[in-house]
Amino acid sequence: MDLGELGAFLRSRRDRLRPEAAGLPGSGRRRVPGLRRDEVAELANVSADYYTELEQGRGQVPSEPVLHALARALCLDPDETAHLFHLAGHPAPLGAEPVRMQAALRQLMARLGDTPAMVITDIHEVVVQNHAAQVLVGPQAGLTGIRASFLYHWFTAPATRDLYPPEDHDYHSRLLVADLRAAVARRGPADAVSRELVDHLLKTSDEFAGLWRAHEVKVRHEEYKRIVNPALGTLKVTCNSIVTADAAQRLLWFVPDDAGVAPKLHALDPADVWRDTPGPAFGLVTGWG
Which of 19, 47, 70, 182 has its CA 20 to 30 A from that of 99? Predict the structure, then answer.
């Protein structure tokens, strides 16, 4: 259980919630931007003193029924509810996270043929890519330490963002940080790798620090995105994922809108596609490794 993070998360969700959204009557000018502590306590059927202690990082570990009540009171979505349970040291409630497959992701990826696919960790370290994925997004495997994480490069190396159109950058920044926060909670405060990554980005990126303070949580599932490829231009793809039972790794595969893209990805050499780019592909081809 991480009492400090639990309290900060509860405060952030309370601050963003308008009384009307929580089923409370509007009362004109208020001293706080969202709900008051006593209002959340009343909605969750707990004492105001107990809820105040939770926000201050003190008090007893909340039970699962109390966590469910707090999630309802604060109008949390499924990803935020799962995050709340993780911070309190409880498993996420059934249905709060996507169905996961316990499978050998590498073997499954090998059966995808010409479909671009890759295995990444929950903090966006690229474990392995097939040929089509290397052509599509650039070789990104083979790095170690915090530099193995896509987030490290996204927030410290501007050229990494060339992978997406400029108007999509804010969206990806926000979603990457929200996904990372969920992963850090699952790993717990004792995990040195995720803690080192977060600490480094807090020191080096004002953008990351601002997004981290927002306490947003959003686990990445199916996404529709645009990818800028040096050889093929801007491609529209659906990015799907399968997550392992422990949520430590996920298999990503990309389905282009244009069916004619697949044979081109098979035919091209990733070294030729990405050799002359300054990033975003930050693997050995670009010299970042």
Answer: 70
Final residue of a domain: which of 87, 122, 146?
87
Q: What domain range is 253 assigned to? A: 105-286
Give pTM, 2 decimals. Answer: 0.78
Question: Structure tokens of 82?
Answer: 């799962």
From CA 125, how far away is CA 250, in angstroms rounded? 10
Tens-digit pLDDT string for the chain (289 aa): 788 899 999 999 999 888 878 787 766 666 767 888 999 999 999 999 999 999 998 878 899 899 999 999 999 988 899 899 999 988 777 555 444 444 567 777 777 878 999 989 999 998 888 999 999 999 888 888 898 999 999 999 888 999 999 999 999 999 999 999 999 998 888 788 999 999 999 999 999 999 999 999 987 778 899 999 999 999 999 998 888 777 888 889 999 999 899 999 999 999 889 887 765 444 444 433 3
Cα–Cα distance list, 108 to 118, 134, 154, 266 (Å) = 11, 17, 28, 18
